[in-house]
Amino acid sequence: MHKFWLISVIFLVLSACSSSDKKENLEVSNIIQRAIDSSGTSKFEKAIVQFQFREKTYRSIPTCEGLKLQREFKTDSAIIKDELNQGKFTRTKNETFVSVQDSLANLYSESINSVHYFVQLPFRLNDEAVQKSLIGMETDENKEYYKIKVSFQEEGGGEDFEDVYYYWINSETFQIAYLAYSFKVNGGGIRFRKAIVQQKVNGIQFLGYENYKPNFENAKVENALADFLAGKYVLLSTIENTDVLVNDVELNCN
């Protein structure tokens, strides 16, 4: 009798833990999906999107195998076009393919993906390599936010898979208000971004950011919002994308 009672208790505890885990996973997935829906960014799968960033033209093109990412810029003597498609990097110079060393190809690939990644948020939070969890709630002066932690699986997570991100999503509008991330390249560090520019083009919301870094040692990325509100971060730059174009396309992937 006692043995049966003990087994029943263990089963109930394990069931409760399982239900709790499922509830948290469902909750964070729902938050992310509502953020994607409110921003219209799922439309990246159905439209060619072009924008200017720091004197380069960026373009994402939907295909049946995923998004093809491009950037294009001019030098004194040539037009350079870089493309990242299904993890493969290619470069053309005046429409002629040129060979690029693997180390440089990896560097260029990460640069292209990084620019497109921030523009496509929060849509990219549903990438296969993304691991996300709801940490809790935080507030600034007058609003409440879901605090979500994002990390990446090594497979499919890119060269910077060890980076950790935090997103603060408005609990009423489901818009990204802040994000922060830690990185290990170039000596490592933390960056904090405050969303400041919101323009909607053909159904997709595009964000701009104020970009900050901590002005004290031993900063922790998970405390970034509280430290920012306490005046412990300094402005580095303003990040804006201009000349945004969104053109719908139809894919037949049958």
From TrEMBL:
It comes from the Bacteria. Pfam families: DUF6503 (PF20113). The lineage of its organism: Bacteria, Pseudomonadati, Bacteroidota, Flavobacteriia, Flavobacteriales. This is Deoxyribose-phosphate aldolase.
